[in-house]
Amino acid sequence: MGLEKVVFFEPYPFVTGQKIHIKNGPRKGDWEVIGVSDRKVRLRCPVSLREFEWDHFCYKTEEKDGVKWPDDGE
Which regions in the chain score pLDDT beneath 70? Predict the structure, then answer.
């Protein structure tokens, strides 16, 4: 196992009251976070005021060079 460039994904930690903008995809646009649970995030469109609840779907990423991959936990 050598050192590789690895991309890390983790769920974004939404907080109720946040104003967010999703850049791409079917949910693109501006939203207000109106509820968060362990599995779901509830968003409201600031224009139509329609509300939607979805499984967590946004992830933040980080890319690092020189990472042991695959990670064997040590």
Answer: 1, 61, 69-74
The rounded distance, in Å, linking the Cα atoms of 10 and 23 is 18
CA atoms of 8 and 6, how far apart (whole Å): 6
3-class DSSP state of 9: strand
Chain centroid, CA 56 distance in Å: 7
Which of 21, 23, 48, 54 shows the shortest CA–CA distance to 36? 54
State how far the alpha carbon of 14 is from the alpha carbons of 27, 28, 54, 71, in Å: 15, 16, 12, 27
Distance CA(7)–CA(59), nearest Å, equals: 12
Q: What is the pLDDT of residues 50-65, one digit of tens each?
A: 999 999 887 776 777 8
The pTM for the full model equals 0.73
